[in-house]
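Blinded run. Sample ID left blank on purpose so nobody reads anything into the name before looking at the predicted structure. Input follows.
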Amino acid sequence: MANVRHPPLKPGMIDAPHRRWSAGDLQLESGEAIRDFELSYVTHGKLNAARDNAVLVTVSLTGNHHRLDFLIGPGKALDTDHLFVVCVDPTGNGLSSSPSNSVQQPGMRFPHFCLRDMVHSQHRLLTEELRIDRLRCVIGASMGGMQALQWAVSHPDFMLSIVAMTPMARTGPWAVAVVETARRALMADPAWNGEAFTGYPERGWRAWTGVMSVLAGRTPHALAEVFAEPLDVLPWMEKLTAENIANGFDATDWLYQSWAYQAHDVGTTPGFRETQAALASIRAQALILAPPLDLFNPVECALEAADAIVDATLVEIPSLQGHQSASSLREEDVAFLNDEIGSFVRSIRTES
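Blinded prediction complete.
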């Protein structure tokens, strides 16, 4: 693979050895295939002799294997003194196979993929490379939470439990509008020629930051809590823009991941015809977490998923941070999530 670049490490990130698994060609649900497919991943803790203490971390849109590092470590929700935690980079994030790093199918020649293709690649990694056929938990936030729900539908007996933060079982119209607006921001850059990016779309990323990192990622209350003077938000937005540019996420990768994001629906899983029936088939113990207000993945989507899953536990994250409530942004949210998720994981009925 070419052009694989890890984003800069930030405080709180766990600097674990990176691993790569070469899977050959990955057959996609569409009938196409990603040639010479590779998954990037890291692990924390040790796999026990029974090989039954593994937890899979699934990752959000534009995220990487560091996404839930604030939950990982001794004494935390994903306690590495007892659990073997596998954090997998999703297709299209620039570390696993992506438009930006594919040699055989670069850029817009890369085939379109869906979230179920991500889950399929993770299932192959676990069973073929790591020889794991049972998970204690699948956990993720945002698109990671959506993958967790899909895991429980696609492989109902593979995991004992799932934890889905700020998830959608079916992408709502609002979320579709958000990612479409972000795509339009990127494509409005002069580097987009109508078919592909011919250079780095810096203006596009500046506009993208306003849409995704600010308007969709926060709430009015969150900003009012931080900025006593309204115009103080402007230099903060410049700082966010600089951080997003420094992270180096590729614009074409964003297009592909956001297309997969907007098209997702567990109800289109083979064997099902609608969302509620797919959710009702879930046998894993389920914990769904969402804040009072989310301007990206509407809270109503999380509530509907929890209502449809038999015996699911729904917990409100007491945060004003909106979509960013399921992150390490605020110490109070980190403490709450570690307590709630840690209690849930420890209580999992292993005889299930």
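Unblinding after everyone has recorded impressions. The chain has a mean pLDDT of 96.
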